[in-house]
Amino acid sequence: MQVIIKTKPMPTPRVRVSRWGAYNVPRYTDYKELIKNSVVVDKVLTGALKVELIFQIKIPKSWTKKRKAGYKDEIPIGDCDNFAKGIMDALQKHLFEDDRQVIELRVQKRYGLSDMIIVRINEVNNDIIN
Fold first, then answer.
1. Could you name the CATH architecture of 2-128?
2. Could you tell me where the beta strands, DSSP code E, fall in the chain?
3. Is 40 helix (H, G, I), strand (E, B) or coil?
């Protein structure tokens, strides 16, 4: 299964804490809802999964022409694991039961001409694992 989500990737922000409890910023909650609503599901996957996530971030307008020409050499800001966490949290209990099912996770971040997230999920046959 492959899904392309046309939105700006967002790394998971730190949880905010107040005297009334802990909470996520509303922007992050909206982001997870957008991801969840972008993935149409026939059934919830229950077996072992292999997940590939590709986060493409649009080249900033503020870059010089020279820097834009060499955008493939640039590394986007944000940790790969923080980008992946938002997607995994959004799809949990929607596309798959629990993120414990993921036995292989590949995450890639890069600059490109437009913002998008590519999600590829494959069920894995447990017989091939020794």
1. 2-Layer Sandwich (3.30)
2. 2-5, 16-18, 21-23, 49-58, 102-112, 116-123
3. coil
Contact (Cβ atoms closer than 8 angstroms) between residue 121 and residue 35:
no
Return the sign of the alpha-carbon dihedral for residues 76, 79, 81, 85. negative
Burial of 27 (0-12, 13-18, 19+ CB in 10 A): exposed
Instruction: State phi, psi for 45 to the nearest 5 degrees.
Output: -75, 140
Could you tell me the residue ranges of all domains in the chain?
A: 2-128
Cα→Cα distances 117→84, 99, 129, Å:
10, 18, 29
Q: What is the pTM of this model?
A: 0.86
pLDDT in tens, the chain (130 residues): 888 999 999 998 888 999 999 988 899 999 999 999 998 888 888 889 999 999 999 999 999 999 888 888 888 988 999 999 999 999 998 999 988 999 999 999 999 999 999 999 998 876 655 5
Sheet holding 102-112: strands in order across? 2-5, 116-123, 49-58, 102-112
